[in-house]
């Protein structure tokens, strides 16, 4: 990993989930439900959640996908909650003690049909890069897609066409 000039960007993903807003909200607010779809893969995992304004979340794990174990740490702080329609939080992600990115995230939940439209917007700054230009942004966006696929899987099937990612 190298520490370079920061890279700023925005990732937006929207989709309609089959679950009502209160159920989607619970998937963010309840640690047992959240842990079904949001956690660091690998071994030596921890996961704590204090779902209130001023609270936050911390999850860690040792990931060994490349053959070399790496400690991954994700820590957030919640800035705004409007149940069951809006969550605003900031987070930082570190790998082996090196901060990789810092983000501000807004999750908007809107009733749609019998389900929920979820609009996820992440404004990020990459503070350390691992490879070629654009590789880390692609990884962040791919991770976001994977994460929301896991959320969707924990809630049931989607109501409409695949999500769009900008």
Structure commentary:
- The two termini are 26 Å apart.
- The protein has helices spanning 21-29, 31-37, 135-155, and strands spanning 7-17, 43-50, 56-63, 70-82, 86-95, 98-112, 115-126, 164-165.
- Strands 2-3-4-5-6-7-1-8 form an eight-stranded antiparallel sheet, with helices on one face.
- The radius of gyration is 16 Å and the shape is globular.
- The chain is built from three helices and eight strands.
- The protein has one domain (7-165): Alpha-D-Glucose-1,6-Bisphosphate, Chain A, domain 4 (2-Layer Sandwich).
- The protein has 166 residues and is α+β, with helices and mostly antiparallel strands.
- Helices cover 22% and strands 48% of the residues.
- Helix 1 crosses helix 2 and helix 2 packs across helix 3 (135-155).
Summarize the structure.
The protein is α+β, with helices and mostly antiparallel strands and 166 residues long. The chain has helices at 21-29, 31-37, 135-155; strands at 7-17, 43-50, 56-63, 70-82, 86-95, 98-112, 115-126, 164-165.
Mind telling me the C-alpha Rg? Answer: 16 Å
Spans of at least 5 consecutive residues with low confidence: 157-166
Tell me the helix content.
Answer: 10-25%
What count of helical segments does DSSP give?
Answer: 3
CATH superfamily descriptor: START domain
Strand percent estimate: over 45%
Q: Can you tell me the CATH architecture? A: 2-Layer Sandwich
* Strand/helix succession: EHHEEEEEEHE
Counted up, domains total: 1
- Structural class by sheet pairing and helices: alpha+beta
The name of the CATH topology is: Alpha-D-Glucose-1,6-Bisphosphate, Chain A, domain 4
Main sheet makeup: 8 strands, antiparallel
Number of DSSP-assigned strands: 8
Across the major sheet, the strand order is: 2-3-4-5-6-7-1-8
């Amino acid at each position: 990993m190298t520490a370079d000039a920061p890279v700023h960007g925005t990732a937006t993903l929207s989709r309609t989930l089959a679950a009502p807003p209160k159920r989607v909200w619970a998937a963010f607010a309840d640690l047992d439900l959240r842990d079904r779809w949001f956690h660091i893969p690998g071994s030596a995992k921890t996961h704590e959640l204090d779902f209130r304004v001023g609270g936050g979340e911390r999850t860690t794990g040792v990931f060994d996908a490349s053959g070399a174990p790496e400690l991954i740490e994700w820590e957030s702080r919640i800035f705004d909650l409007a149940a069951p329609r809006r969550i605003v939080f900031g987070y930082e992600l570190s790998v082996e003690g090196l901060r990789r990115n810092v983000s501000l995230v807004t999750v908007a939940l809107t009733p749609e049909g019998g389900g929920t439209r979820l609009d996820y917007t992440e404004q990020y700054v990459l503070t350390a890069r691992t490879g070629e230009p654009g590789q880390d942004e692609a990884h962040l966006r791919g991770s976001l897609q994977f994460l929301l696929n896991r959320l969707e899987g924990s809630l049931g099937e989607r109501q409409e066409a695949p999500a769009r990612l900008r």
